[in-house]
Design goal:
heterodimer; A: 113 residues; mainly beta; seven-stranded mixed β-sheet; globular; B: 111 residues; five-stranded mixed β-sheet; four-stranded antiparallel β-sheet; 0% helix
């Protein structure tokens, strides 16, 4: 199993630019999570999808952030426009029907300058 | 989500057992206790989970008190590679199975 695959692994962008992070969950998993991790705030849950439908987006910081899951094998997290305070590691994770275990990707390291 | 409380940091000598405590006094009867760990620069990794019985796997043992208000993760023979942040989580299935991570316990294994 390839695990949860995220891209890009690292991105450096200028303030104001659009950033798109991508995630491919584990095949057969029906729940997908986006997390953000910073030193100050730790690991925060941003949004949670179940069967491609957003269930809880209360963790999305503001309108600049949006997430989509057009099908069971792909999700995107978009930041537009990006700001320096968005610099963080963004993790995608997925879990199956039983919901017993979350599997994380290796993260996308975002730096906004 | 059932609130969990963990010590901020702990040290453990290499080769000794590391015992990481977690309080979850508001846990409901059908909620599991999960443990994850995060090694620097990597995504969190699943360790073990349990409902009310003690559990053991190749990585660790999980001891849950009879009243289920607290648990202890045991790494029987800690190695330097076990240095990580350990998270105790009780996901609430009533609100959709979200896994909220707190601040965890930063475990340092000392040579």
């Amino acid at each position: 199993d390839a695990g949860v695959i995220q891209s890009p692994r690292h991105e450096v962008t200028e303030m104001g630019q659009e950033v798109t992070l991508r995630c491919k969950p584990i095949s057969g998993h029906n729940s997908l999570f986006w997390y953000r991790q910073t030193m100050m705030r730790g690991l925060e849950l941003l949004i949670y999808f179940n069967n491609n439908v957003p269930i809880d987006d209360s963790g999305m910081p503001e309108d600049r952030f949006s997430a989509k899951m057009p099908n069971a094998s792909f999700s995107t997290l978009k930041i537009q426009p990006s700001e320096p305070r968005d610099s963080a590691v963004y993790f995608c994770a997925s879990t199956g029907q039983s919901g017993n275990t979350i599997y994380f990707g290796e993260g996308s390291w975002l730096t906004v300058v | 989500d059932a609130k969990t409380t963990q010590p901020t940091s702990m040290d453990c000598a290499e080769g000794r057992a590391a015992n990481l405590p977690c309080n979850h006094s508001t846990i409901s009867g059908n909620e599991y206790v999960y443990w994850y760990r995060q090694i620097h620069s990597q995504g969190p990794q699943y360790i073990i989970h349990g409902l009310k019985n003690n559990e053991t796997n190749e990585m660790a043992s999980l001891i849950i008190t009879e009243d289920r208000k607290s648990s202890t993760l045991i790494l029987p023979h800690a190695t330097l590679r076990d240095t990580a942040v350990y998270y105790c989580i009780v996901p609430s299935y009533n609100t959709g199975n979200q896994f909220y991570f707190g601040t965890g316990t930063s475990l340092t294994v000392i040579p």
